[in-house]
Amino acid sequence: MTSEQLRASEAERAHESEFESLLQPYGVLLKEINIIRELGSGSTGLVQVAAYKDKLVCVKKGHKPYSLKSYKMEASVLFKMKGAGGVPLLYAAASDYPFIVMEYVRGRTLDNDITRMYTLGARYVVDLFHKLGSSLNCLHAAGYVHNDLKVDNIIIENTTKAVRIIDMGFSCRIGDVGYPENPNMDGAKKMHMYWSFSHFAPEVFFGLASTPAGDVFSLGRMLEEIRNYMTRKGVIRDWPMGLRLMEANMVHVLPEKRPSLVTIIITCRSYVQSFSRQIEQEVQESLNEQSSAEGSEVLEEEG
């Protein structure tokens, strides 16, 4: 083991030790929680808004104790990220039950924001994906992948308009398995289920090692969903062909054929800049036309 690997290993052990010291018994933690209202529920757990130590927080509780391992992994990721990349802050977690207390992010999900996008156009979309890619890059740099990126796991803050990534339930270290394969499910049923969860990269859904390329696939699915919505609304005129080609490559079945996240960030940034120049040009042309019209009116009055 090299000195660099040794330092990384020691840092990881220190992180795990610090994280374990944060965990509390479920019964003790529950006494400090005052539930306010329910946010939503799914197959694995319930999410609620609550008050905790003078903070408005988000509480995530698993339906069954067997999900304790995945909840601990989610809490560990939140703890290590410490808010970087727009990931919610971790406040507390139970040691003996799937229960996490985290930052409550105020805003609207991307799922709700899609209905506004057809009025805002492609510039808004590429700017949003530039921010989202940059946030996701922080997660990858820390050694983790999300594995469950979809429109209702992205929040746009009300005040700052920052892009926040939530629900780290399938997140894991790069190279680990984030979505364990079900050995009791036959091939046909598995394929049918996959098409119901098509935002998952194929390699992630079928229990292979997770890599940043899996998150790129999910980003591509989101971009595809937004483009399809805008197409149905008939407002796809300013959608660049290059963006459409990048989207197609992002959802390639082979991970190695997908563009890197850095390439996606750079591409989106270049489109944002291009749209900005286009808007500036249109504004200038409008001002020139207005100035020309005012000049003609002055000449007519003098005549």
TrEMBL record:
Superkingdom of the organism of origin: Eukaryota
Xref: Pfam families: Pkinase
Species per Swiss-Prot/TrEMBL record: Petrolisthes cinctipes
Residue stretches making up the Protein kinase domain: 33-303
Kinase in keyword set: yes
Name used for this protein in its record: Protein kinase domain-containing protein
SMART domains: S_TKc (SM00220)
Family: Belongs to the protein kinase superfamily.
GO BP annotations listed: signal transduction
Record-linked Gene3D superfamilies: Transferase(Phosphotransferase) domain 1
List of residues binding ATP: 61
GO MF term (any one): ATP binding
